[in-house]
Design brief:
By secondary structure, the protein is α+β, with helices and mostly antiparallel strands. The chain has five helices and five strands; from the N terminus they run ααααβββββα.
Amino acid sequence: MKAILVSLLAASALAGCGPEASAQGQAAYLDDRSDGAALIRSLYNAINRQEYARAYSYFSKPFNDYQSFVQGYAKTVSVQVITGTVTPEGAAGSIYAPVPVAIKSTEKGGKEHIFAGCYITRIVNAAIQEPPFSPLHIESAELEEVDGPLKKALPKVCHPPS
Protein backbone atom coordinates (compact mmCIF):
# COMPACT_ATOMS: atom_id res chain seq x y z
CA MET A 1 0.00 0.00 0.00
CA LYS A 2 2.83 2.39 0.88
CA ALA A 3 4.62 1.64 -2.40
CA ILE A 4 1.45 2.34 -4.36
CA LEU A 5 0.79 5.58 -2.48
CA VAL A 6 4.37 6.65 -2.99
CA SER A 7 4.07 5.81 -6.66
CA LEU A 8 0.93 7.81 -7.05
CA LEU A 9 2.48 10.76 -5.31
CA ALA A 10 5.42 10.46 -7.64
CA ALA A 11 3.17 10.27 -10.62
CA SER A 12 1.31 13.33 -9.56
CA ALA A 13 4.52 15.23 -9.36
CA LEU A 14 5.59 14.37 -12.89
CA ALA A 15 2.52 14.73 -15.03
CA GLY A 16 2.11 17.72 -17.22
CA CYS A 17 5.74 18.77 -17.38
CA GLY A 18 6.06 18.01 -21.04
CA PRO A 19 7.18 20.23 -23.87
CA GLU A 20 3.68 21.34 -24.78
CA ALA A 21 2.44 23.93 -22.32
CA SER A 22 0.12 26.87 -22.54
CA ALA A 23 1.32 30.45 -22.33
CA GLN A 24 0.34 30.40 -18.65
CA GLY A 25 2.71 27.48 -18.04
CA GLN A 26 0.01 24.83 -17.73
CA ALA A 27 0.54 21.63 -19.67
CA ALA A 28 -1.59 21.20 -22.79
CA TYR A 29 -4.48 18.76 -22.28
CA LEU A 30 -3.54 15.16 -23.10
CA ASP A 31 -5.97 12.24 -22.95
CA ASP A 32 -4.49 9.43 -25.03
CA ARG A 33 -5.31 5.76 -24.48
CA SER A 34 -3.70 4.51 -27.70
CA ASP A 35 -1.05 2.52 -25.82
CA GLY A 36 0.26 1.94 -22.30
CA ALA A 37 2.93 4.67 -22.34
CA ALA A 38 0.47 7.26 -23.70
CA LEU A 39 -2.02 6.35 -20.98
CA ILE A 40 0.59 6.87 -18.26
CA ARG A 41 1.61 10.22 -19.76
CA SER A 42 -2.10 11.16 -19.77
CA LEU A 43 -2.37 10.18 -16.09
CA TYR A 44 0.42 12.53 -15.12
CA ASN A 45 -0.86 15.23 -17.43
CA ALA A 46 -4.16 15.12 -15.53
CA ILE A 47 -2.31 15.31 -12.21
CA ASN A 48 -0.21 18.28 -13.35
CA ARG A 49 -3.38 20.04 -14.47
CA GLN A 50 -5.04 19.16 -11.13
CA GLU A 51 -7.74 17.25 -13.02
CA TYR A 52 -7.94 14.55 -10.38
CA ALA A 53 -11.25 13.01 -11.47
CA ARG A 54 -9.72 12.36 -14.90
CA ALA A 55 -6.55 10.92 -13.35
CA TYR A 56 -8.60 8.70 -11.04
CA SER A 57 -10.68 7.43 -13.96
CA TYR A 58 -7.64 5.85 -15.64
CA PHE A 59 -7.51 3.12 -12.97
CA SER A 60 -9.66 0.01 -13.36
CA LYS A 61 -9.93 -0.47 -9.60
CA PRO A 62 -8.64 2.54 -7.69
CA PHE A 63 -6.64 1.53 -4.65
CA ASN A 64 -8.42 3.98 -2.37
CA ASP A 65 -11.31 6.40 -2.36
CA TYR A 66 -11.32 9.52 -4.51
CA GLN A 67 -10.83 12.00 -1.66
CA SER A 68 -7.75 10.12 -0.41
CA PHE A 69 -6.43 10.06 -3.98
CA VAL A 70 -6.79 13.85 -4.24
CA GLN A 71 -5.23 14.39 -0.80
CA GLY A 72 -2.20 12.40 -1.94
CA TYR A 73 -1.38 15.28 -4.28
CA ALA A 74 -2.04 18.16 -1.86
CA LYS A 75 1.65 19.17 -1.71
CA THR A 76 2.44 18.43 -5.35
CA VAL A 77 3.35 21.34 -7.59
CA SER A 78 4.46 19.43 -10.67
CA VAL A 79 5.39 16.00 -11.96
CA GLN A 80 7.61 14.77 -14.76
CA VAL A 81 7.38 11.23 -16.11
CA ILE A 82 9.53 9.22 -18.48
CA THR A 83 8.53 5.83 -19.81
CA GLY A 84 10.63 2.95 -21.00
CA THR A 85 10.08 0.25 -23.58
CA VAL A 86 6.58 -1.22 -23.48
CA THR A 87 6.12 -4.81 -24.64
CA PRO A 88 2.41 -5.71 -24.91
CA GLU A 89 1.38 -9.33 -24.42
CA GLY A 90 -1.95 -11.02 -25.05
CA ALA A 91 -3.62 -13.27 -22.49
CA ALA A 92 -7.15 -14.74 -22.39
CA GLY A 93 -8.81 -12.03 -24.51
CA SER A 94 -6.87 -9.16 -22.98
CA ILE A 95 -3.78 -7.25 -23.94
CA TYR A 96 -1.48 -6.30 -21.07
CA ALA A 97 1.19 -3.65 -21.48
CA PRO A 98 3.74 -3.31 -18.68
CA VAL A 99 5.05 0.28 -18.64
CA PRO A 100 8.41 1.04 -16.94
CA VAL A 101 8.38 4.55 -15.44
CA ALA A 102 10.53 7.03 -13.61
CA ILE A 103 8.84 10.03 -12.05
CA LYS A 104 10.09 13.25 -10.53
CA SER A 105 7.65 14.92 -8.19
CA THR A 106 8.17 18.47 -6.97
CA GLU A 107 6.38 19.65 -3.83
CA LYS A 108 5.54 23.12 -2.61
CA GLY A 109 8.79 24.50 -1.22
CA GLY A 110 10.82 22.79 -3.97
CA LYS A 111 11.45 19.37 -2.41
CA GLU A 112 11.85 16.73 -5.12
CA HIS A 113 11.19 12.99 -5.03
CA ILE A 114 12.16 10.36 -7.61
CA PHE A 115 9.99 7.27 -8.01
CA ALA A 116 10.55 4.24 -10.22
CA GLY A 117 8.58 1.15 -11.04
CA CYS A 118 5.95 -0.30 -13.32
CA TYR A 119 2.38 0.31 -14.31
CA ILE A 120 0.45 -2.56 -15.86
CA THR A 121 -2.13 -1.42 -18.39
CA ARG A 122 -4.85 -3.65 -19.83
CA ILE A 123 -7.56 -3.63 -22.45
CA VAL A 124 -10.03 -6.38 -23.22
CA ASN A 125 -9.88 -7.17 -26.94
CA ALA A 126 -12.01 -4.41 -28.46
CA ALA A 127 -13.47 -6.80 -31.08
CA ILE A 128 -15.17 -8.94 -28.42
CA GLN A 129 -16.48 -6.14 -26.17
CA GLU A 130 -20.12 -5.12 -26.00
CA PRO A 131 -21.40 -1.79 -24.66
CA PRO A 132 -20.41 -0.15 -22.53
CA PHE A 133 -16.94 -0.15 -24.08
CA SER A 134 -14.07 -0.41 -21.59
CA PRO A 135 -10.99 1.47 -22.85
CA LEU A 136 -7.36 0.86 -21.99
CA HIS A 137 -6.90 1.35 -18.24
CA ILE A 138 -4.34 0.98 -15.47
CA GLU A 139 -4.67 -2.43 -13.89
CA SER A 140 -1.94 -2.03 -11.24
CA ALA A 141 1.02 0.07 -10.18
CA GLU A 142 4.14 -0.69 -8.20
CA LEU A 143 6.39 2.29 -7.57
CA GLU A 144 8.88 3.13 -4.89
CA GLU A 145 10.97 6.13 -4.02
CA VAL A 146 14.58 5.85 -5.20
CA ASP A 147 17.78 7.88 -5.06
CA GLY A 148 19.59 9.24 -8.05
CA PRO A 149 18.75 11.06 -11.28
CA LEU A 150 15.47 10.53 -13.07
CA LYS A 151 16.88 8.88 -16.21
CA LYS A 152 18.95 6.37 -14.24
CA ALA A 153 15.89 5.42 -12.15
CA LEU A 154 13.94 4.12 -15.16
CA PRO A 155 13.59 0.31 -15.01
CA LYS A 156 14.83 -1.48 -18.12
CA VAL A 157 11.85 -3.83 -18.26
CA CYS A 158 8.55 -4.65 -16.58
CA HIS A 159 6.68 -7.93 -16.80
CA PRO A 160 2.95 -8.57 -17.25
CA PRO A 161 1.01 -10.40 -14.57
CA SER A 162 1.47 -14.17 -14.60
